[in-house]
Every structure is written in C-alpha cells, then in structure tokens.
# Entry
Amino acid sequence: MGSRYSAWSLLRHGLTGGDWSRAFRHHPVKNSYDVVIIGGGVHGLAAAYYLAKNHGITNVAVLEKSYIGSGGSGRNTAILRSNYLTPEGIRFYDRSVKLYEHLAADLNFNVMFSQRGHLTLAHNDSSLRTMAWRAEVNKLQGVDSSVIGPDEISKLVPYLDTSAHTRYPILGALYHPPGGIIRHDAVVWGYARAADALGVHIHQNTELVGIDVEANRVVGVRTAGGDRISTPIVLNCTAGWSTLISDLAGVSMPVQTFPLQAAVTEPVKPFLDTVVVSGTLHTYVSQTDRGELVFGASVDPFASYSTRGSLEFVEGLAGHVLELMPALSKMRLLRQWAGLCDMTPDYSPIMGPTPVEGFHVDVGWGTYGFKAGPVSGEAMADCIAGGRPPEIISAFGLDRFEAGRLVGEKGAAAVGH
Ligand code: PYC
# Structure
C-alpha cells in the first residue's frame, strides 16, 4: 500500500470525509433515453455497463427506487459457482465465473473474488447419485467438479463432523474448486462507477410507477417523482418486484416471491477456507475475509415480500449448523436479514424480449441471481443491441413456459427448496 493509502490516511479520510471523489455522479433525469433499466442492482448496473462498453450505447438511465445494491445484490451470501445441472445452466454460469475472474481488472475496482472451492455435501445415496450426475455434466462442459469422499472432505474442512455416527452422516460431496465468495457491494459499486464513467445516468431514490405502451410498443416510463421519460426500450432487472414491474407493461410473469433468510456471526480467526453447502440440512456456510461466518438457508415456506428475519429461522439454522460443525456452539450471531427470491416453475431465470415490443426482462433469479450478474448484464446488452437474444440465453426465454421447453435446475439450486 503506497503512502497515499496508509492506515493513517485511511483513518483521516474516514473521519473527515477526505478528498475521495464520488464513485458515480448525480444527474438530473433527462426527458429521453435510448434505454431505461429498472433496478440498480448488479444485473441492472452490469447491463448498463456492457451496453456502453461493448456496444457504445451510452444514453442509458438506471432507475433505482432506493440506493444501489439495496435489493438482492446486497442481501445475498455472495457465493459464486457454476456447477449446475443442465448444460444450458452450466455454460451460462461458467461464463459468469469467467467474467468475475477478470472483473477487478476490468472495472479497476477490487471486488475480492476468492476462489476457495465449493463443497456440496451428500448425506444419502440419492444425493450422491445427483452429485455424480452433476459432476459428469459439469466435466463435459469443461467445468471443474468431481465427487470426493469423507477423507478428502475432512482434509479440506477439518471442523466438519465426518464421523459415521451423526444423524445425517456425510457420505461424499461434489467438489467444485473454481467456486468461492466475493465482496458483493464492491461488485455493485465497481459496475456503477464504470458505467457512470462511460456516460450512464444512475438515478437513486427514483421509483418507477408506470410504463407507457402504445400499439403494443414501449414509448416511455413515469416515476413517482413526476418524471416522464420517453424511451423505446425498458429492461426490467428487478428482484422481488419483477412481477409488479412487468405488470406495469401488461406482461404477466410466472414468478412467485419468497424470502430467503441469512445470518452472520461475530468475526473469528480464519479456519474455514471452503464454501460448504448441505441440501439435506438446508444450510450453507462460508467465512468472510473479515472472519465472520455467513450462513444461509432455503427460501421460507410461504410467499411474502418481508425482508425481516425470524427467530424460527435462527433456531433451525443453529441446530443444522451444529450438526455439521459442533465446534461452533459458542459462536454468537451478530445479525440476520432476508432477501427476496423470485422463483420460476423450473428454477431457471427468464431473460430476453417479451410480447410487448421494447420491454425486456432479466428476472426470475430465485436464489442464484447474484452469481449471474456479469453474464446477465453482458447477454442482455447483446440482446438489446443486437435485437435478439444471444445463444447463451436462448433457452431462458419467457416463451418456454408456453412451449413446454423447461430448463429444470432444481437439482442444482443451492439447497433443497
Ligand atoms: O445457488 O449457490 C447458490 C446459492 C447460495 C446461496 C443461495 N443460493
């Protein structure tokens, strides 16, 4: 670290506000944009960035009803992986991991991607069979995944109880070395700063209240602050509100919204340098660079827009985590939260054009949206600039539900839902 960023100068800047420039600028809302993106999370900001960078389309507005990253992008557990089940899913998430690998250099922003490996535990024969199936499809697509046994698991994670006498003994695991964790808010800020530098306007505290459609074609949008913006293209990049935003354009989405709860402990010395997932015990855990353990679960069993945590969740979580790692019994939880997951019938996203011309969607991200941010942004930018969905998202169109071409990814969702 050079003298400009010594510990002393960081402290001085922190206390005084310093001379750090803003990551992105504030602009008045213009009355016309070539593209209006709804949602200032990683998907919306990445789409804006790649529209500008890859296609030279810079007259773009991102409308965010709160602050950037305040939705799913700031409420996930920051896990990245590409060990999906279907060839379409694996190719797609593999491209995302590759973009994440170069993101810090591309955005000139330290996003702290730590490829520490990802373990999905199998506690019964049928899970082991699914792991073997996933490993083979992964390998065919060039993605590093294999099934390993309890001895190897215990070398990777010595604190896991791999003995044969537990309620749910660990029989093996799907090991995916390229998986890992990242600093999710840095990803959001990095994309925002880079998109802003290319001319994109980011409007925070700007809620969408209407999408104007004439003769089945988008002509503009309206905001809660009274702005009327004319535009031929609207891209819905929201999570939690994807059905409500699509309804404004008269497009119905086969999506139901469920909260997913997560929690974080006090920081402790590093002891866990792998991501551990157990579908049977409905939990996953990783240790951040600050030393906190981050836990997540499956979605709550009822549809809701609540982002509050519940006591029932932490009780269940603690019980399950202690079955996996009894040594954690003295750790204290610091806080808990929930994010909103838009679940589709086949556990794959919905991406591309809709029956309303100019209205595009990048929604239905279930519990795997954050990890897809870069590839979704890149693909939606290609889709808008090129006038049709690129090959990498051609399987995820809205029309698949009518045509019966589902892309069943339930077997590779983070934990059983
Ligand atoms: O799909 O890896 C995943 C995931 C982790 C947390 C929620 N989903």
Remarks:
- The chain has eleven helices and 19 strands.
